[in-house]
């Protein structure tokens, strides 16, 4: 394979990669939301399936449920507002029903409307629930009721002098056992502490298992991503398996039931997530459930029963993170939570690139200029590799007339043509692969940078200059994609033309194909390509015109 064929292979591979991204969006579209119907006995039975049931349709009520409602009910709402979030907790179930992220506008043109991460209505249903599961019959004949996400609490909101806000929900069983659920909101934090206290004034012990779950529809929030694909679905973490995606399709196929010590469970989407994080290393049964209307449940239930002795009380706490995927914040909340910023298999390269981009931003104060400087640093690192590549191309350009002459001489005799070409390469000490191998080495870095720029919430609605007011969406006037196509075309002219006329036509078409793709790519990604191509042109011109002639 000669240099031009390998370059063509690299270019087509990148085109196929971009096509695959677009295809992912086509084969994984947001599921349609069915028309609202009455809840049937069957769906209600499914909501009451115990955690860890052996078969999906089994409806043997061994315990009161973690599961999920087909349509959530509403009662009194408690509103909490901090520096960064506005939350709504419903006294029905004590669920976290709405979360608005005050520092992240829904639309840049309407900055007073915050992005709504959690919502208790379709099509973008996303809520956090918790409660206790306990058996209806026990060997000792004792049963004391416990609140779950169907229970209606009495609620109130309190705020202290330090700005800490507490939503307090109380419920007392017919037997007199008092349950208190507290959501504790710190002034400038996306971490919510959830405290569950059981006070047992009776003469009998109370036993139950705490469960915590996220309930979400399969609908994906709309965004200006064009053809790019990002993961929306469930994720769990364990010390054994580390980061695992639990896709909605997997939840449809089978219920998750796995015992994990500690860990966490999350529902993630582009830029944002919600996650339940236990604060201890107790054993939990992690479970998933697919409900009607393409609603999905991912959660955990304490494997060991909480036992509250007579005339005593006991508490169990956990954390709920609802907010943006800020890596520096997530890594302090729980091990591995920062991996929800999903860079894929090239995380080992993408994370250092983001670290460097963040450091540059801290210096220049603008994410667009940070991308420009990061691109410059990458070019400096790969300067020698690029120099080798461009020198090889320059030598190839010198012998191009001779290669064309032997092609005309031998015509369709491929064996003699290849032998004659190899003789020229040997005589002129040219490595026909010298122009391609350095480029192949850099491809993983380019792809890692692609994912890093795509996944970084810091670039959401981040301005650069003039008309580029949001680096996470397409250039509204398509100036950057057109510049990118123009720089690719200039690079093509600086390279030796392929001898094969068909290859030459395909190579010349690539800049136009890429321009069409990049019309709808986030401006931050296109900016990287424009700067990278411009620096490559300057470097190639310098090597071709000065280094080779000297």
Question: Could you explain how this protein is built, in words?
Answer:
The chain is of the alpha+beta class. It is elongated. The chain folds into two domains: 42-326, Beta-galactosidase, Chain A, domain 5 (Distorted Sandwich), CATH 2.70.98; 350-547, no CATH class. The longest helix is centred in the N-terminal third of the chain and has 25 residues, at 3-27. It contains 13 helices and 19 strands. The strands form three sheets. It has a nine-stranded antiparallel β-sheet. Helix 5 crosses helix 6 and helix 6 packs parallel to helix 13. The model is unreliable at 1-9 and 22-70 (pLDDT under 50).
Helix percentage = 25-40%
Tally of structural domains: 2
What's the CATH architecture of the largest domain?
Distorted Sandwich
CA gyration radius, whole angstroms? 30 Å
| N→C terminal distance | 30 Å
Short description:
The protein has helices spanning 3-27, 41-47, 248-253, 327-333, 347-364, 367-381, 383-398, 400-410, 414-428, 437-455, 479-494, 501-518, 523-547; strands at 77-81, 85-90, 95-107, 110-118, 126-133, 154-159, 165-172, 178-185, 191-200, 206-217, 233-238, 242-246, 257-261, 264-268, 272-278, 283-291, 295-302, 306-308, 312-324.
Strand and helix map with partners:
Layout: H1 3-27, H2 41-47, E1 77-81, E2 85-90, E3 95-107, E4 110-118, E5 126-133, E6 154-159, E7 165-172, E8 178-185, E9 191-200, E10 206-217, E11 233-238, E12 242-246, H3 248-253, E13 257-261, E14 264-268, E15 272-278, E16 283-291, E17 295-302, E18 306-308, E19 312-324, H4 327-333, H5 347-364, H6 367-381, H7 383-398, H8 400-410, H9 414-428, H10 437-455, H11 479-494, H12 501-518, H13 523-547
Antiparallel strand pairs: 1-2, 2-3, 3-4, 5-10, 6-7, 7-8, 8-9, 9-19, 10-17, 10-18, 11-12, 11-14, 13-16, 14-15, 15-19, 16-17
Helix pairs in contact: 1-12, 5-6, 5-10, 6-13, 7-13, 8-9, 11-12, 11-13
């Amino acid at each position: 394979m000669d240099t031009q064929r390998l370059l063509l292979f690299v270019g087509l591979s990148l085109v196929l990669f971009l096509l695959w991204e677009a295809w992912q969006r086509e084969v994984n579209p947001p599921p349609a939301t069915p028309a609202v119907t009455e809840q049937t006995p069957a769906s209600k039975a499914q909501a009451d399936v115990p955690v860890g049931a052996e078969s999906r349709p089994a409806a043997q009520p061994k315990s009161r449920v973690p599961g999920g409602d087909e349509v959530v009910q509403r009662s009194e709402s408690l509103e909490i507002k901090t520096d960064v979030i506005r939350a709504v907790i419903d006294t029905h179930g004590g669920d976290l029903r709405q979360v608005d992220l005050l520092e992240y506008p829904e639309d840049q043109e309407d900055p007073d409307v915050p992005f709504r991460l959690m919502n208790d209505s379709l099509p973008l249903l996303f809520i956090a629930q918790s409660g206790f599961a306990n058996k209806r019959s026990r060997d000792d004949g004792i049963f004391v009721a416990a609140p779950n996400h169907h229970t209606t609490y009495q609620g109130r909101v309190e705020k202290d002098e330090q700005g800490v806000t507490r939503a307090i929900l109380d419920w007392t069983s017919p037997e007199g056992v008092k349950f208190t659920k507290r959501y504790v909101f710190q002034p400038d934090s996306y971490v919510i502490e959830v405290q569950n206290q059981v006070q047992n004034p009776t003469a009998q012990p109370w036993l139950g298992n705490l469960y915590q779950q996220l309930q979400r529809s399969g609908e994906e929030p709309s965004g200006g991503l064009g053809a790019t694909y990002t993961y929306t679905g469930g994720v769990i973490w364990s010390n054994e398996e580390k980061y695992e995606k639990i896709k909605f399709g997997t939840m449809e196929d089978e219920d998750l039931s796995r015992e994990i010590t500690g860990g966490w469970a999350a529902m993630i989407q582009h830029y944002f997530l919600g996650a339940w994080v236990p604060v201890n290393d107790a054993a939990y049964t992690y479970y998933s459930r697919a409900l009607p209307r393409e609603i999905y449940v991912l959660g955990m239930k304490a494997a060991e029963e909480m036992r509250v002795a007579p005339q005593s009380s006991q508490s169990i706490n956990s954390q709920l993170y609802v907010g943006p995927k800020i890596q520096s914040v997530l890594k302090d909340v729980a091990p591995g939570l920062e991996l929800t910023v999903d860079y894929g298999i090239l995380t080992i390269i993408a994370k250092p690139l983001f670290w460097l981009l963040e450091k540059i931003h801290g210096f220049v104060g603008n994410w667009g200029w940070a991308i420009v400087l990061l691109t410059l640093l990458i070019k400096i690192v790969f300067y020698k590799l690029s120099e080798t590549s461009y020198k090889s191309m320059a030598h190839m350009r010198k012998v191009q007339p001779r290669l064309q002459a032997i092609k005309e001489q031998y015509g369709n005799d491929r064996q003699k043509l290849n032998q004659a070409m190899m003789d020229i390469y040997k005589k002129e000490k040219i490595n026909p692969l010298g122009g391609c191998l350095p480029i192949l080495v850099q491809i993983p870095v380019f792809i890692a940078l692609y994912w890093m720029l795509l996944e970084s919430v810091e670039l959401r609605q981040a301005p650069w200059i003039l008309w580029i007011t949001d680096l996470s969406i397409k250039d509204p006037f398509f100036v950057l994609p057109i510049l990118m196509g123009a720089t690719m075309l200039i690079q093509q002219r600086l390279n030796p033309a392929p001898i094969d006329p068909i290859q030459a036509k395909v190579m010349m078409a690539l800049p136009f194909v890429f321009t069409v793709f990049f019309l709808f790519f986030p401006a931050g990604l296109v900016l990287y390509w424009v700067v990278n191509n411009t620096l490559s042109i300057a470097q190639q011109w310098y090597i071709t015109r000065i280094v080779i002639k000297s």
